[in-house]
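FAQ: What does the model actually see?

It sees only this:
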Amino acid sequence: MPTPAPAVPKAALNFYRDVIVKDKRFRSLDPVHDLALLEPVTRRAVQAIIAEADKLGIKLMAYETYRSQERQALLFERGATKLKTVGVHHYGLACDLVRDINGLPSWKGDFAFLGKLARKQKLIWGGDWKGFVDLVHVQRITVARQKALFAGTWYPDAYYDAYAK
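And it is asked to produce this:
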């Protein structure tokens, strides 16, 4: 029996319901690299990071934008994530950015530059986390807001700022 889609509040931006849920890759076990599955504010921030890294001589690629519930469970079984049933990637609010080496993804090298670029674009960098550090991960919401996102009681609007007090 397929896993039901998590609830998203009716008043939310509806990107999740109107775009992600309707996409043919909604239950994909494969990584999805499509920037179009990032919520628009997140997409613009990720595109800006890729462009700024390019100016620094670092070529990046979006390795994983959207991630299905099924893929999340698979990654949990493999020990690649601490979240078993859901993650911010599932809502179009997170992206893994890796080095592009002749068209192939690479997780090698120092990714401290990504933290600086992410913060400049008001994205949270997984390299700042304690415990489960994820050097290639950026997301548009704080860890504290994830519980409400996963419960379907909150989704960031276009004006949400993860760094605002």
